[in-house]
């Protein structure tokens, strides 16, 4: 018996118990193997996706969509053709070669382009740039002849902090349908050259193709990075208009029609710069404010539930020397009166502490 069951002590009863325990252990191991194999075959559970809100759900009041981002000049992302820029450049080159002999031809006929003339011109410009890589006129001429990402990279190697070239590069990528490339260029340029014009262009881009979360997050970043500029009023007014709409939405959800705020400096404002009626969000905006911004970020209504978020935005704006501060001050006083209705002394204290900053900023701008 000992030989038959190696490792078991002698004795029939003990050997039988040992044999049964070994069989049970083998059965349990086999079950674990089958369970592991079954689990491996099953696909992992998909996480519930949160619908992404588009930034274009918002109504813009102060950031104008000019240039390539204007409604008339904008194409839907799936309509943008990579050949558009090549066609435009070809037309520009061709128009320069039109001579008097072609003046009587049909206007719809595109003039022919002389490739040899283009080649000679490019060689001449390249020779100029070899002598002086900072010849902006030569770079501009090359870009007019053959605009491309590779050429913009060369230009920016010579002018790494040029607002003009960074902006043209990013908008060129967007115009030719390279949305991901445009996004990458914008992220590079606002780091290499944080300038108000670049941030405004980036926000227009995000409004057209980005999510609500990206737009709101970068609008707040823009006020932090370039909000000190005396020309930054559009950023501050847009941020306040957005926050006020969310604040009013929260009040309406609670059934509270008292304390609804007006936005400063909207069209049709009073001489003090304050709108005569409360600024209310559209139904689509209200739904967007109450939805999660992403899988990891809660809704805007959750963030703005803390009145200190709007209070901080007001106070930072009033501490900046920009245009339209009278309207912002009137809106801020109305805000403190509404949220401090149960404590008028606190509201008076907060506005009293802020008034010297408002006066100093207003005087500095003037």
Automatic annotation (TrEMBL):
Compositionally biased tracts (Polar residues): 16-28
Renumbered residue ranges of the record's region Disordered: 1-52, 91-115
GO molecular function terms attached to this record: mRNA binding
GO biological process: mRNA 3'-end processing
An annotated GO cellular component: nucleus
Protein name per Swiss-Prot or TrEMBL: Suppressor of forked protein SUF
InterPro entries named in the record: HAT (IPR003107), Rna14-like (IPR045243), TPR-like_helical_dom_sf (IPR011990)
